[in-house]
Write a structure and sequence with these properties.
alpha+beta; Aminopeptidase; five-stranded mixed beta sheet; 5 strands; about 30% strand; Gcn5-rel_NAT; GNAT_YJDJ; Acyl_CoA_acyltransferase
């Protein structure tokens, strides 16, 4: 089952509709022109299918395309970046 990632720039989130539920990656902007990815949620029924991975990749790709740095406040985003060092160039680490 293939789900499309959507970006709601007004609500500051990337999300996917999964049946009558939603998976999401939320973020905020900092004063340093960075996107702070702060929360990832995947419904229990859809876990283990790579959905969080897809959301995080879309969020980080959006940050890169828009010349933003990224902050991994969410543990899922931090774990993703540690497994995908190609995103280290846009990360702001504490």
């Amino acid at each position: 089952m293939e789900h499309e990632v959507k970006h709601d720039q007004d609500d500051l989130r990337f999300y996917m509709e999964i049946g009558d539920e939603e998976a999401e990656l939320t973020y905020s902007y900092t004063d340093e022109n960075a996107m702070d990815f702060d929360h990832t949620f995947v419904p229990e029924s859809a876990r283990g299918q790579g959905i969080a991975h897809k959301l995080v990749r879309c969020g980080l790709d959006f940050a890169r395309e828009n010349d933003c740095k990224a902050i991994a406040s969410c543990p899922a985003v931090e774990a993703f970046v540690k497994r995908h060092p190609e995103y280290n160039d846009i990360m702001l680490w504490p």
